[in-house]
Structure formats: C-alpha cells, structure tokens
Design goal:
Length: 249
C-alpha cells in the first residue's frame, strides 16, 4: 500500500522536513480530525464531543481522563466505529472509517478494534475459551489455537478454560474480556474504565497485563480511567472537559 511508496520516496528525497512528515505518517495508527458528536436538538442539545483533533502512534499507551459526563465514553466509541460522529473524521491505519457502509464498519470493528468495558460484557452461557474466540466465530474464521493458548497463558486463565463467567472472579472476568479484545490482533484496544469495578490488587494486575500487551505486541491502547495513578502509567494523558481536550501531557 501507499506506505511502502512513501518509504521509497523517502530514500530518494533528501529534504529533512519531508522525512519527518512521512515518518510521522508511518508511525500513526489513529488520527482524529475535528470530531464532533451532538445528541438531541434545540434546547436539549448536548455537544458530547466538541471539535476534537489528535493522533496516536502505533504502540502508544494513551490515557483519557476527565470528570463524569465530560464526553470520554462518547469519544472512545467514535474512535472504535461504534457510533457515527455528527462531523469530523477518524482514520485508523490510514482508513477513513466513517466512509465505510454500516456493514463494512461492523467488519472493521470486529477485526481492527478490541473493546474492554468496566462490566466485562461477557456472554454468560459461553465458557472462557468460547468468550475469547467469539470475534473469530462471528467472522467465520478459524481460531488460531497457538494465539489462543499463548493468550490464556499470559492471562493466567489456562486452568479456567471451561469455566463460565459466573464461576470467575471480577479480575478473571476482566482478563477474559482482554483476551477477547486481543484475539484478532486488532489495530487498537479501547478500554473504558477497565479497572472501575475491581479492587486495587485486581486493578493493578489488569493494568500490568495491559502494559505487558503494549510492550510485547506493540499493541496500541487507549484507556479511560478515573484513577490518576493508573493514568500516570500511560505514555500520554489527555484530559477532557465539556467534550474538549483541555490538557495533554
Ligand atoms: N445516547 C445519548 N443521548 C443523549 N445524550 C447522551 C447520550 N450519551 C451520552 N450523552 C451525553 O453526552 C455527555 C457525555 O457523556 P459520556 O458518556 O461520553 O461521558 P463520560 O465522560 O464517559 O462520563 P462517565 O465518566 O460518567 O462515564 C453527557 O452529558 C451525556 O449526558
Ligand atoms: Mg463513560
């Protein structure tokens, strides 16, 4: 694709500024341009995400913080193709995701985005293995047994393969949902308060696991959290207020 063309062009071109721009493009996994999401009309209109622009590099671990109602979950859903914006663009790996039809957007979500929620969202009648491999089954793909076994091992769930969600602790259930998010080797992992329902020990374990994935697989992670200590573990922190980025560090 066009990236390899850019690399060849780079080698032939001596201009330093061009080199920087092309290198940035190659590293970029996500770009958000003037993204806005409004709910309701007239007096009840809420601007949940207000003209937000930023980009994320491949392998970056980004945290998003902000008070309740500031627009964090709405923004995260827009990044993952879960909801369509009122205006603005989201590019994932160079692709303008909202130019896709609803059907193709659903396929994109299944293959390129892994989502982790506060309350796990596991299917109660499916066991650990079946919950993790659900995205492959929905896609009609064969399960990569090697990846599944490797994931079960690093998630510490090897001897819980056949357990149902209600036979697991909260931390274990969240580990299953991390496995489900990772099984298809997605371009981005989006986590909405993944430790919000866990005690401090289980929270630490989940954050360590996300950091390990980030390092081992160069997995790009964008995580919402209310816990500033956890946010500080990330490479970069965006603070959202009233739908706008008010701070970046
Ligand atoms: N489906 C919806 N319809 C109308 N308004 C909505 C809808 N979803 C969210 N909102 C509004 O958009 C704003 C942002 O909501 P959002 O859920 O993104 O906040 P948040 O930062 O994730 O909050 P929290 O920390 O409590 O999860 C809120 O004012 C909320 O009331
Ligand atoms: Mg939220």
């Amino acid at each position: 694709m066009s990236l390899s063309v850019s690399i060849i062009y780079l080698k032939e071109n001596e201009k330093k500024e061009d080199r920087i721009i092309y290198t940035k493009k190659i590293m970029e996994i996500l770009r958000v341009e003037n993204l806005t999401k409004k709910y309701g009309k007239g007096e009840s209109e809420v601007i949940a995400v207000d003209n937000v622009s930023f980009s994320v590099e491949k392998g970056e671990f980004l945290a998003i913080v902000g008070s309740s109602g500031s627009g964090k979950s709405t923004l995260l859903h827009l990044l993952g193709g879960v909801d369509r914006p009122t205006s603005g663009k989201v590019y994932v790996d160079g692709k303008d995701i909202y130019s896709l039809s609803d059907d193709n957007l659903a396929i994109f979500r299944r293959r390129q985005v892994g989502i982790i929620y506060q309350f796990y969202n596991l299917i109660p009648i499916l066991n650990v293995e079946e919950n993790i491999t659900l995205p492959c089954d929905l896609d009609g793909n064969k399960v990569d047994e090697k990846r599944l076994n490797e994931l079960l091992k690093s998630l510490g769930l090897e001897n819980r393969r056949k357990h149902l969600p209600n036979e697991l602790s909260g931390g274990q259930q969240q580990r299953v949902s991390i496995g489900r998010a990772l099984i298809n080797n997605p371009a981005i992992i989006l986590a909405d308060e993944p430790t919000g329902n866990l005690d401090s020990k289980a929270s630490e374990e989940i954050v360590e696991l996300l950091k390990l994935t980030n390092k081992k697989y160069k997995q790009t992670i964008i995580m919402i959290t209310h816990n500033l200590e956890i946010a500080n573990e990330a490479d970069r922190v965006l603070t959202i207020e009233d739908g706008k980025i008010v701070k970046e560090k």
